[in-house]
Amino acid sequence: MESTPVWPFWCLIAALFFLLVISNLVQDGMFVDGTGYSAISRNLAEGAGRLWNLKFSETWFSEFHEHPPLAFGLQALFFKLFGDHLFVERLYSCLTALISLIIIRKIWLASVDKKYKNLDWLPVLFWITIHVVYWSYSNNMLENTMSVFTLSAVLSIYKACKIKFYRQQYIHVFLSAIFVFLAILTKGPVALFPLGVFFAFWLAYKTITLRKMLLLSLFLTALVIGLFIAMFFIFPSSYSSLTKYFNKQIEGSFTGAYGSLPRFFVIKALLNELIPIISLITCITVYCLITKHRLNFKFDKLTLFYFLIALSASLPIAISPKQMTFYLMPSMPFYALGFASMLREFFQEIIFKLHKKNIFRLLTLILLIGSIIFSISKVGKIHPARKSLSDIYELGKVIPCNSIISVPWQLNLDWYLRAYLSRYYNISSEFSDIYHRYFITEIQYENQTPDVYTKTNLTTSKYILYERDM
After folding, report:
1. Model pTM score
2. Residue 300 half-sphere exposure, CB side, CA atoms within 13 Å?
3. pLDDT (tens digit, 9 = 90+) per residue, 390-417?
């Protein structure tokens, strides 16, 4: 088959990246978790808290051990470099997406036959159209950083499986151990799934012996454990920090302290996330049946290998009562690779037909230009789902930065208020017997406002600001 240019498909991916990720990143307002993470990273960059003793605010999580610290430390470097600006966490999140994209492509190129290397865009296309993927990159989630390391680990392990020279093989195993170690320091035990990649390779390919697979897996595991032991000796505070994380977050997750969902919630969430790809496969199947075209899906060793990794990264989440859809995000590159592998023969024929059509090239260029213009039009606008941000800006005009304010107990559970005040103005909120200078409430809770406060004339839509009579 003659060589086919694939730049129109990369234009399509770039257009989707602008539409699904960039257009959201350039808007003002993120999901509460991502906003809180950026506040912690900013604090670390400014000297509030330490790597092994992070800090969210003066009143909430003044000692933050809800997650391992690596992603916060890396993002803090960006704040150190660029200062306290809203684009910093967005730049960081965008870079993690681009790095992951590059590694997905490298995994594809390393694992497929030469005739399919021109389909390096296909797994990337599937990956970026999965909702939890572009949503996570739009909201500065920890899974973004973790995915960089787990993808790197899988690529190194695959190379170790294919290389016959022992020295190079064990170099790749050592590299993969470092990546797994870094992934765990980003998100915890959910990053352990690359330890099973040797088993997945053996099960799918059978080109290494069972003994070799077990030795490599044990060696990889031992290296990861060794890296943690070395870290505990070099940085003793790391042991204390991770122990607190384990006791609070891991034990709390399994005991249901952070809420409980049905064990199979993650299965339902997974199927929902894969609806676009499953729908595409259904359409291809119907098309082939109607046109009597050969249904050339590839259910081979490579496809099995990718899906085994994907399942190992997603199904164990069901063990914990605490389940969130975005926990699935690091597994999505491997589902994308698996489906791309399964459909590679079909799309090989498609690109051979499409590359000759100038209209397709023109449409992808128009779509790319349109998506860039659309993203530019969103710069600085408040995200429609974060309308309360306009109130935050009004509150920030009156309340001094680095203040502590009072709230009624109902607003003590308003995580968006707490996160936005902390990230934008480094303002802490608390419900206590102490009457701070400012008191924020909502209309339905005004009757709980202490008598020492007087309502201000600030124009807001959701929150009401009171000031203490001094």
Report:
1. 0.94
2. 14
3. 999 999 999 999 999 999 988 888 899 9
